[in-house]
Amino acid sequence: MVTPDPRAAWQRVVVAVWSLVLALLLLGPALAPGYVLSYDMVWVRDLAVRADVLGLGSGLPRAVPSDAWVAVLDELVPGMLLQKLVLLGVLLGGTAGIDRLLPRVGLVARLAAVTLWQWNPYVVERLVLGHWPVLVGYAALPWVLLGATRWRATGRAPWWLLLAVLLGSLSVSAGLATSLALLVALLVGPGGARPWGRGLLLAGAAQAPWLVSGLLHVRDAVTDPAAARLFALSDEGPLPGPLAALTLGGVWNAEVVPGSRTGPAALVALVVLAALLVLGIVVVRRGGTEPAVPWVPLVLLWGVGWVLAILTWLAPGPFGVLAAVVPGGGVLRDGSRLLVLCVPLLVALVAVAVDAAWDRAGARWPPAARVSLAVVVVVWPVTVLPDGAWGAGGRLGAVDYPVSYAATRTALGDAPGDVLVLPLSSYRQPEWNGGRKVLDPLGRVLVPVPVASDELVVDDVVIAGEDPRVRRVREALEGPTPQARAAELGALGVGAVATDLTAPGPAPEVAGAVLHDDDVLRVVALAAVDETVPPSAWRLAMGLAWTVHLGVLAASVVGGVRCARQRFRRNLSG
């Protein structure tokens, strides 16, 4: 069983404080009042609990169950504050987990490991891309490995493992990484118990909402094969894809790659990391670390993550075929996303290497040289990725929504039918967001279920969407008159049309009663609408899925309360 190092309290405080300093420096303006709106990260004051966030919409469950949790929690905590708590919690919570997963190393090595865990291309690029559920899974990963290792060693799952698996399952790709980590640790980790069957049930229960919703949408769960080449692992500056992946880079979207990753700093990062990894491997092979560290699972997970990423770089075509033929196969097309599986091994080996170097320097180097060495090994990830600081160079700034958005929400209320959001394009670059690209936020602000474009344009290539309802809406918008368009849209369950007047693209006029109209947004309510209701079988299936999902949370809470009660009794008796 892996246990936390018996360190002095002040060392634990130093690690926690350093983690907080890194988090504050990394997020910077993102923690200011306002909402951070960057690519897929779209938070609003109050996300409504509606059919699409519960997995009953017409499109694939890309934001299930993450949106549902946000919609519930922002009833307790304002959305603006909740977003900042999540971003900080990702960095601090993940650091606390990786610090416990590390072998028994000294303070300098722990600080170096914490820096690499928080400050690397994977974290910075995913922050800018707005993949916060993926980063929640990133933070949960070391806790999943710790809990699975303890489960295999003792035959009993700690209560917090259930919570970690739940948090690691907020999206499809994060859930896949979490499940792999859990099952690999249970199958080949240290210890005699082999509860992999129960682990499989736990993973399935935690991911039941998107699994069941995906099965309900199985006819539409295939994706455009052209996307595989666009989403494959990419070169970064002087680094070809495989070497970029080794340094936790290679994201498909060149727009979010920090400038330092396109120049000599990327080569420096590769050389330094490679040297530390080689030294760490030598120390581990010589038996210089405790045997309880789950090295075998860490190596296997690194292999899975790196090989899958490299395969998308070498041969994206087969991944395109897989996505076009196998429902759900598109989850593997983002070559760099599963690099999350590589991080625990890299961080653990760096910690071992730094500890060995520090011990060797302690016997031969003068104090001033040792201090210099400590500074270098601790902060080198920051020095080779300096533009990750201060919200990725200001790209994660916080803004307020224009008053038109709140007025539109109030005017539309919970009107019958769904709301069509025009123009039919996925991303916006509004001036009020500093010109930063973001997934259209209007549909998330409003209460009715939004019908919006799910097409994606990458390098001027249009990736077709999967939602069949959106295709029918496009056809309805081609009607000859506003009245004809309104009639066809109403038959599709659309009760209102909300148009962003500041966004480029066509927005055909639709006849209806004007509810709100200014220089930013215009909303009209259609005269007649045939409201769409999910089939009763779908509602029953998703009800069962959510019951199972929440059952994991309930079991975790009960286990935590029982553990706290037992500890309290031991303290009383002692």
Structure description:
- With 574 residues, the protein is an alpha+beta fold.
- It contains 23 helices and eleven strands.
- The strands form four sheets. It has a five-stranded mixed β-sheet.
- Helix 7 packs antiparallel against helix 23 (536-573).
- The protein starts with 8 loop residues before the first helix and ends with a helix.
Chain-averaged pLDDT: 92
- Gyration radius from CA atoms, angstroms: 25 Å
Q: From the structure provided, what is the oligomeric state, counting identical versus distinct chains?
A: single chain
Distance between the termini: 25 Å
Our count of helices gives 23
Helical content (DSSP H or I, runs of 4+): 55-70%
Give, in spatial order, the strands making up the sheet with the most strands: 6-3-9-11-10
Strand residue percentage: 5-15%
Number of strands: 11
Short characterization:
By secondary structure, the chain is of the alpha+beta class. It has helices spanning 9-27, 66-73, 79-101, 107-118, 121-129, 132-154, 159-167, 172-188, 196-206, 208-216, 226-231, 241-246, 264-285, 295-314, 316-325, 343-364, 367-383, 389-394, 403-412, 442-445, 468-476, 482-491, 536-573; strands spanning 35-36, 398-399, 418-422, 427-428, 438-439, 450-451, 456-458, 461-463, 494-500, 513-517, 521-525.
